[in-house]
Design brief:
Elements lengths: L14 H6 L5 H19 L5
């Protein structure tokens, strides 16, 4: 876990997202995937955020 951002360094999910993944609906997982994409973009290009 990245201490600064509070995200898994491998999958970019929060601890809560990881914990809840197995019980999340497909719709909830799509929301998390969208957040992951946003996080990846922000980390790749921090001035765009």
């Amino acid at each position: 876990m990245d201490e600064i951002h509070g995200l898994c360094e491998g999958c970019l999910r929060t601890l809560d997202e990881i914990r809840l993944w197995s019980v999340s609906s497909d719709a909830e997982k799509r929301v998390v995937w969208s957040c992951i994409a946003d996080r990846a973009a922000a980390l790749t290009n921090p001035t765009a955020a």
